[in-house]
TrEMBL record:
Gene3D superfamilies: Anti-sigma factor, zinc-finger domain, dinb family like domain
MF term (GO), any: metal ion binding
Domain Mycothiol-dependent maleylpyruvate isomerase metal-binding: 107-254
SUPFAM superfamilies named in the record: DinB/YfiT-like putative metalloenzymes
Keywords: Transcription, Transcription regulation
Protein name: MDMPI N domain containing protein
Domain of life: Bacteria
Pfam families for this protein: MDMPI_N, zf-HC2
Domain Putative zinc-finger, residue spans: 27-56
Listed InterPro entries: Anti_sigma_zinc_sf, DinB/YfiT-like, MDMPI_metal-binding, Znf_put
Amino acid sequence: MSGAHGHDVTDGAGDPPLELEHQVLKSLLGAWALAACSPEETAAMEEHLGDCGPCADEARRLREAVGLLHPAETLDLDPGLRTRVLESCLQQRPPRIPVPQWATPYEAEAARLDALLQDIGDAEWHAPVRLRWFGGTGPTSRRTTVAGVIAHLLSVDGLVAVALGLDDPLGSATAKTGTPQERTEAYWRASYFPPTRSVRMPWREQSHSLVRTVSFTGQGSRKLSVPYGGFELPLRDAMLDRAFECWVHAEDIANAVDYPYEPPAPRHLSRMIDLAARMLPAALAARRQALRGSSGRTRHLAAVGRPGRCLRLEIEGQGGGEWLIPLDSPPLPASLQPVKPRGAVGSAEHEVAHVALDGVEFCRLAAGHVPPEEAAAGQLGDREAIRDVLFAVASLSRM
């Protein structure tokens, strides 16, 4: 085979070590510390470290840093350490199969949750947790445990797994519908005993399989969609939805075991907010239809693709930005994907209200963890439109 940097090597036992320049070896220090070098590069590096004091010192420092990444360590470490080490290494050696950017929020949130689970004791897996969401007319909840929350994530992430052709974690268990709640209830019913910490490994292996599969399929998976029972999401948005749920439920667990937990990285938070903003027109139409009946008349209804009244949603802080939310989209058939632009079009000329919310507050409202009436929002303009939008944001939540 052909070795790195154009040197030809063979598998013979008597092959001499690679002869690499100092600068090349220095650039490989990060990969060597992570044990990511080829055998030939490793041999050349070890020989070099015996003769070069500065590189030996740097190698020792990097190995110590990598040692801090082992899962047995506490979560009280600098949360940016792993990212800094890996980014430094990948600048020198990009991954052969990179994770698509649209899947990185899920990868990051699953890794953060897994680190939290690694750090809690056996008894804490049975700590009570209350899953909360907004049930259309008001808050609702379901009591479970830390282990039950991971079983919930395993069950719902299974929707993506099935869409990708992977095994369904429900196995022979059946759900009345494919909704997240029904799948979770089916998994809980099929368990002989309440879930324990043993559920961590199936969830962890499934999350790794999801990331690995979308990384290998790449552009080939763009046309896939994931059914959620009453609607579908494109695979890209489904992965983002699962990242959001992973963060929300990680916070539920952290609160239950009295552990500090930070929001997602701003670039990931921004994508989660954008997904919710794109789903709002359909959520508004569904809410209006539920309140007034399918045959009810709506005086402001706008035609598909035409500008109508809109609300300016301003998100402050991390992941911030502005979105024009159409208020008068016609109801969409349940089979249509709610994030596709099939309704009215937002136009600044037709703006009737303005709402400002902190990014994390907005996400907690979308998770059903903050009642719409209590959302800390700056408001200006049409009060009815503002109320409709805040309630529609809350209606995005589910078990």
